[in-house]
Amino acid sequence: MLDIRWKAGLFVCALIVISLFLWLISGATAALLVFSTGLLLYLSSHIFWLHQLRIWFKAPDLKVIPEGFGLWEDIFTMLLKYERNNKLIQTKLNSSLELFNLATSAMPDGLVILSAGNAIEWCTPNAEKQLGLNLTTDKNLPIVNLIRDSHFIAYLYNGEYDLPFKLQSWRNPELILELQLVPFANQQKLLISRDMTQLEKVDIMRRDFIANVSHELRTPLTVVGGFLETLSDMDGAVPASLKHYFALMEEQTIRMRRIIEDLLTLSTIESNTGNPDDSEIDIAQLLEAVQNDAIGLSQGLKKTKHKIHLDVDATLNLSGAIDELRSAFSNLVSNAIRYTPENKTKGHGEIFISWGLRDGEAVFSVRDTGIGIELQHIERLTERFYRVDRSRSRETGGTGLGLSIVKHILIRHQAKLEISSRLGLGSTFSAVFPKSRIVHVALATTT
Ligand code: ADP
To answer: Which of 105, 122, 166, 228 has the fewest CB atoms found within 10 Å of its own CB?
Structure first.
């Protein structure tokens, strides 16, 4: 098949040749007449087919595309091919889109695409169901107009999306959702919602079970402990040969009581899903009390002595629940004492307690010069009953629950626990609090 340019060229050449031939045999006028008539016809045919193309474009239907003639036949054939190809691509795209829609609808999680300005761009039917959205009416509306929970709004604007966010549905309080934001593409965000109701129920059952068992054990243990103490104190009640066994029994009941108390503390903190009772805490005063307790604990240990240093930025207070934070800080300091033996050269172990600002965040830190922890254990330390050295933990009155309690208290205060350690040299445990919890204090100046 001839190229379009060749066809046009051939026609013009043929017209010129015929006109020249006519010029030779019939003169210039006849040649000019034939040439201009030919050109006019040629132009008219183009105008005709252009008009046909315009009519077709108004309602482009592949079945009624004009056939054309000469050069236009080629153009219409190419147009037909192009349109068929387009239709094929469109069909493929449509079926991919349909498959994508089916897949996202089948997902148990809900997905919402948020624009850079946090407006809803698209969502799946499950997201509509879980979050009470309606894509038809809510498209382009800001998500904060529809999910009005103040904690969710803080999570959205905070920009820290590493951890998911738990939300009790305001429409159905029985429904517990886990929301996670994932930034993607052009400053857009993907909001993933997951129904956690069943898992939460199982977790509540587990917590209730532990709390109930601990409660049930507390009373008989108190009775047994009481009798053991009374018998030991009564002159002649316990034969001298059995005194040692009685002392061991007393020691073990005290240990069990401590474990039960810690289990109850842990389940109280865990089941308290509400916010902590926030008030401004005078950290300088609190840490002084913690230091005094630590000195007492250190003196209570028969073999070891410690020097406890305190460095506090008194211009910095914290908003939080004082009882919970005192318990967390005391736990970390008591661990530092219990895992720091006597120093061979100085004769005493050293503990450094500090409170101050670091990159805009408030940090409570306890550094010890103790036994240290091998790297492989660090990640697991906050698990319940995880101990690097069971016998040392037991010897020093440990329950294996201290760091679990610390972790949960810190989570409730949106803080994180950082642990760094070198075996044989010591460890540093730091609680890092977000800016939002810091209260700056203007110290009174003396003149
Ligand atoms: P425990 O009551 O056994 O101390 P914790 O939950 O407080 O339980 O701590 C878990 C484990 O972490 C401890 O058994 C100990 O092995 C390790 N650990 C905690 N603090 C320190 C520390 N300052 N130095 C060395 N090891 C520590």
So the answer is: 105
The dihedral built from the CA positions of residue 66, 69, 72 and 75, taken in this order, carries a sign that is: positive
Is the CATH number of domain 107-195 3.30.450.40? no
What is the number of the ligand 1 atom nearest to the C-alpha of 389?
16
Q: Which one of 3.10.490, 1.10.287, 1.10.10, 2.60.120 gives the CATH number of domain 201-273?
A: 1.10.287
Ligand 1 atom, smallest distance to 399 CA: 2
Q: Ligand 1 pocket test: which of 298, 403, 429 has the largest number of ligand atoms within 8 Å of its C-beta? A: 403
Please give the number of the atom of ligand 1 that sits closest to the Cα of 394: 3
Rounded (10°) angle between helices 197-233 and 240-271: 150
Look up tokens 């506090």; give the residue: 312
Fold of the CATH domain 276-447: Heat Shock Protein 90 (3.30.565)
- What's the CA-to-centroid distance between 368 and ligand 1, angstroms? 12
Q: Chunk the chain into consecutive blocks of 10 residues (it has 447) and report each block's average pLDDT, rounded to whole numbers.
A: 72 89 90 91 90 88 82 86 92 94 90 94 93 93 91 87 83 87 90 93 90 91 92 88 91 92 91 84 96 89 81 95 96 94 76 96 96 95 93 84 96 94 95 93 67
Give Cα separations from 355 to 247, 340, 416 (angstroms).
41, 21, 15
Q: Which of 269, 331, 339 for mutating ligand 1's site (highest number of atoms within 8 Å of CB)? A: 339
Q: Return the pLDDT at 344.
A: 65
